[in-house]
Amino acid sequence: MSEYFHMHPDNPQARRIKQAVDILNQGGVIVYPTDSSYAIGCHLDDKAAVDRIRRIRGVDDKHPFTLVCKDLSEISQYAIVDNINYRLIKSLTPGPYTFVLEATREIPRRLKHPKRKTLGIRVPDNTIVQSLLEEFTQPIISSTLMLPNDEFPMTDPYQIQLQLENQVDLIMDGGYSGHEPTTVVDLMQNPPEILRKGKGDVDWLMKH
């Protein structure tokens, strides 16, 4: 049976945030709100927890995960970012974008794209997850909360609880979320290539 926390969207309760971090550190899988849709995540180094997420989502070991970071300085620890891409990411974060970049050696091989050694990285504009990342002091390896055979991510915390209360360790209820996932931008290409159009605007690409 999972924990269920009603979170204040603007002033997340510090005690709940600390409890969520404890759950992550103990190998737990959590569901949390972002600035696009709900996400499901765990500790970066916890293979068993990552495998649980794959089973819940119904995806294989080639499915890409995203590293959800607090800010740009954290991104540069886990991905190789040149000056041009750094400026671009800075202009679009925090926000509903996932950037595909070359992963550093800090990232376990099993989480990188098998051929390209890349990883999706993002900085969400959401107070609850920002408070969580601040307390956790490291990124959360995550995936959009979309169940097998569903076309869209889950948006209703109550429905999430009904369907997943026996499969995850914590659900952080930040209210209804949007159903659009992030816009995925491949920064390994020049010019950048949009791999998935989601919530993030792409008009900036015309000026790039």
TrEMBL record:
Signal peptide range in chain numbering: none
Domain YrdC-like, chain residue ranges per copy: 14-200
Molecular-function GO terms, alphabetical: double-stranded RNA binding
Pfam family of the protein (one): Sua5_yciO_yrdC
Highest taxon, organism lineage: Bacteria
Protein name as it appears in the record: Hypothetical YciO protein, TsaC/YrdC paralog
Source species: uncultured Thiotrichaceae bacterium
Lineage of origin: Bacteria, Pseudomonadati, Pseudomonadota, Gammaproteobacteria, Thiotrichales
